[in-house]
Amino acid sequence: MSKITTASIRKFKGVRPIVCVSAYDAITAQLASEAGVDLILVGDSVGTTLLGYKTTVPVSLEAILHHTSAVSRVNPQSLIVADLPFYEGHLRGDELFKASAKLMQLGGAEAIKLEGGASISEQVADLVSRGVPVMGHIGLLPQSYHVLGGYRKFGKVESEKDILLRDALALQEAGAFAIVAEMVDAKLASDIARNLEIPLIGIGSGSDCDGQILVSCDLLGMTPGYVPVFVKQYADVKSVMTDAFRKFVSDVQNKTF
Prior knowledge:
This protein is an alpha/beta fold and about 260 residues long. It is built from eleven helices and eight strands. The protein has an eight-stranded parallel β-barrel, surrounded by seven helices. Strand 4, helix 6 and strand 5 (about 135-140) form a beta-alpha-beta unit. Helix 2 (about 25-35) packs across helix 4 and helix 6 (about 120-130) packs parallel to helix 8.
């Protein structure tokens, strides 16, 4: 497997599905890369998985930098994309560029992800013009949790359908190399994918997107709490780990180890 780049991701559209996972540590990143994952997103979902937050809002740039650095140290063949967290995602101009550059220069990110559609197209175009590859994100925007009042499906009503299509086209026009569509109605996601020249990566948005992304903790069956209904768990690592800890506890208490 040769090193995946943003150009590779764009070229995969219409050729084969793109495989993406969210991962936050060296071990998981190395295993994902060895398995053939195309893109590793160091997502702000680290907040609700590894860090114990209720939402992604409290996740800081320093936290994303810390976990991006861990992923990049194993030199995965997968493309490394880092999330711009809540605060930095609302910056503009030089400040936005500085935050993005920090993730690339110090963290080893090869692209950044920014939540939003047409409303952030100018920021996306500015970053791309400065040499920062950008992945867009439409549909459910977890950083807007407190405005939304919770998580839901998007694109079921006509007004949202038009907005989401415009958002995707605006991000493409601004220079994004790919877009994540989260919790978008499957039929609409399929239509958007057909109208784009860049890949649409789905999460809870049906099987007709150009690729799929899942949080590694969810697909491995490690998540102890709520798991989205669209997630397919490919292992039950939580049970394996719990059983191992119990055996260790028993061996130590019985002085057999």
